[in-house]
Description:
By secondary structure, chain A is mainly α. Chain A is 77% helix and 0% strand.
Amino acid sequence: MASSRLIGLLLVAPALLAVGALFVYPLGFSVATAFTTKEGILTLGNFYRAFELYSVDIGFTLVIVGASTLLCGLLAIAIGGYLTLGENPRAVAILKWLYRWPLFIPFVVAAQCMRTFIAKNGLMNNSLVSLGILEPIQTTSLLDWRGIVITFVWKQTPFVALLVAGAMASLDRSTIEAARNLGAGRLRILIEIVTPQVLPTLVVALILSFVTMMSVLSVPIMISGESPTMMTVDMAFRINAYGDYGTANALGVLSYLMTGAVAWIYLRRGIRQGGKP
Amino acid sequence: MAGAALEIDRVEAAYGATRVLKGVSLAVRPGEFVALLGSSGCGKTTLLRAVSGFVPIAAGRISVDGRDISGLPPDKRDMAMVFQSYALWPHMTAAGNIGYGLKLRGWGKARIAERVGQMLAMLKLDGLGERMVTQLSGGQRQRVALGRALAIDPRILLLDEPLSNLDARIREDVRHEIKALQNKLGITAIHVTHDREEAMVMADRIVILDAGEIAQVGSPEEVYNRPASAFVASFMGAGNVVRLAARRDGSGLVLGAGELSNEIQVPVAAVSGPADGQVVAHFRGEAATLGAADADEAGKLILRGRIAQASYPGGHWRYGVAVGTQHFMVDDPRRLPVGEPVGIGLPLSSLHLFAAGSPADRA
């Protein structure tokens, strides 16, 4: 009995060590730094400073990531819905082929693409002007919070749509046909029959996207240089400009708390379903 | 057919290059219960799905009360289907499922609740309305699916093998319940099944499909006792097949299997098709009797063989009888030893005779 327990421990030891060294230790270290001065004395000063200087950015981050998550969800439902309920096989095939492309593009490249696309003299405005839809004087740059949201949604929607469309495809088709048979139109079926059945998958995909977007530095730096900006930019600035790890880590702890709150929803769901992810 | 609730006229359908329905025509009277019966791949489900609008038809016409509905989408056909998998919505309660069609029709909440209550009572689901459908048993789910279809009072009820997921004991009860309900409501119903007994028990008329074509349409008694072809005879349980030599004798025919049997005189009309030369005879094991190997009874064909196998399925014994190189399954109430020489006695009424090589002989 004792020897089998020892063997069990030995078997999990490498994984435990990796988690400990690469995740728990750095996490613990940065949390500890957030609560101490440079001299190692316990303090809440880093948090005071973080709120004093960056409370607008904290709210801004939540709003941007929240709105992006919501839009990703809506677009993913629309894409998944069309793939599942669309009746034009050619359009379905084209959409299926197209929508996954941004999945393979890193955030930094996505941000660079967006800079050239949504700037005042970017591809989008130039096209609209040459089509006669806008006058050159009417063009505006979207390289601010809107640009961040657009980039996040463009980059993250395919991921959510991939999971959601997969869940929709694996639904019992006859549940859709039964609604159709009773007289429901396709939009109604999407809202009342299909989406509620894939809701668990949708929630998981949105939570994972929320956590991913919270941690992106390249997009806010490249799209919107002006204030307010996202917490990741502030953290980088505190470290690069002042070597101020304390405030940066305090901001880090705050983002842990935000992502932790949504991760808690995810884990609670997993436990309810018997440990399934 | 004048006054038909549903008329299917030379309907053709295909999946890609595979033709699944090859010009099927059928008229269903109001209030009639019609079973589409056939083996897997015969086109019965495709026909039902063509009627409901889920499979587009390549040619022909489907009309309800004389109105052509061939081009209408499924949601505009005023039919309700009960699916094999029940297709209940797992995120809704039993009452939510039953009331959904009424919600789509714009009924008020109170009116829906009243109608759902009636349905629950009629289907013996009282008190289960607020349960999620995932918490119901197979039989209860089946009833909810039926309730959902009946709640909207559809012009035509379509049943796609609704009993195949139930265990045998419950299935027997539900068969009778559905039939009784259909009688009471006077609703026109089309039922797809591969289960012969289910079709016999439930339907007013049975349509036997074979490779996308109708092999026979008739009452349960007709298709059972007077199968139009060897295929129908086999499908309806007359699975024992023996080839007999036929020769003209005055106004009748004399049939026999050479030294394996005696000879029997039959009228020419007893055989489907031109009956010279070879005749194929189909018979059921329960319609035959076992007697002495050397018996020769007038009006009975006696096939002489030996008992090769015995089993007891309940109520009677079932014997595999070897006659020459062929095997026949025959039921008998007596227990007989394996190896015993016997004669399989077949009165003319038990034989379904088809001229060999004629269209009716296609099995």
